[in-house]
Amino acid sequence: MIIEVKNLVKRYGDLVALDHFDLSVQEGEIFGLLGPNGSGKTTAINCMLSLLHYDRGEVSLFGSPMSPQNYKSKQKIGVVMQNVAVFHELTVLENIDYFCGLYVADRKKRRELVDEAIDFVGLGEYRKFLPKKLSGGLLRRLNIACGIAHRPSLIFMDEPTVAVDPQSRNNILEGIRRLNAQGATVVYTSHYMEEVEQLCSRIMIMDRGRAVATGTKEELKAMIRTGEKLSVELPDLPAPVLREIQAIDGVRQVSYQNGQLVAHCMMGGHQMIAVLDLLRQRQLPFGRVFSEPPTLNDVFLEITGKQLRD
Ligand SMILES: Nc1ncnc2c1ncn2[C@@H]1O[C@H](COP(=O)(O)OP(=O)(O)OP(=O)(O)O)[C@@H](O)[C@H]1O
């Protein structure tokens, strides 16, 4: 295991930010920490990095205990924090060179690494720009370049796509995939479930400082009873027929609003044919039909009783 966290407890006064938190990450993974605001993702990362004191528990990185003095491990780690942390007096190139210089003393080698990092995040035409001249998305890309230029083998990224434009978001996500393909293990926090689903090989869903479920997205979705969500466009649906649909085996919950029937179904059933057959038998014409698999929000909702997004 490249990361092994056991029984971590972190309190801020009376608030328990991490509540007996365990985590194992294997080399080569893109591991997602998914949870709503305040669930403890940033605190978990800061504890793993020894940036925060914790009350209890153990953190081991690269097979050895992590501590503020463990410089051997620190050299192999890249960190992209939630808040952009760059020097506003330095240009794009100077910023990346500065952060890379904390790890790589050799100037020639550093020049190569900095150039690679600039290409990597697509900031080639902005090398001489000061950060204040960059858009929010470009600034985030600079933040990433500063965190990864020294070619770390373990990268922590804390919500790197918050408030960025779609082009920069795609650039960032694609970049993370490439870093991973080049051998880096990535721990990625987000409260965007779609992003985590697309990117991560395994996901931990967090709530109130605890891991509520961990697995691949398929494993997580198999943990719940919620199955597909069926939507059928139809101009009219009398209430008695709606009740008949509700009574179909495997249909959990139905609603009809603005010409759209929505049926939430149980996992493992095939209720679409039964629902459409019933509409046909009742001579109710319908238009487009959609079927959506359960989302990680459904997983979160079923386990915690709350929506992932507040
Ligand atoms: N320095 C601090 N002092 C007191 N409470 C804190 C401090 N930092 C975090 N907290 C609290 O600890 C809990 C976990 O916060 P944390 O920032 O780790 O969550 P998060 O999942 O990263 O949230 P976000 O998505 O908003 O970054 C929250 O209730 C937060 O208010």
From TrEMBL:
Keywords: ATP-binding, Nucleotide-binding. SMART domains: AAA. Residues 3-233 form the ABC transporter domain. This is ABC transporter ATP-binding protein. InterPro entries: AAA+_ATPase, ABC_transporter-like_ATP-bd, P-loop_NTPase. Signal peptide: none annotated. The keyword Nucleotide-binding applies. It comes from Neobittarella massiliensis (ex Bilen et al. 2018). It comes from the Bacteria. One of its GO terms (molecular function) is ATP hydrolysis activity.
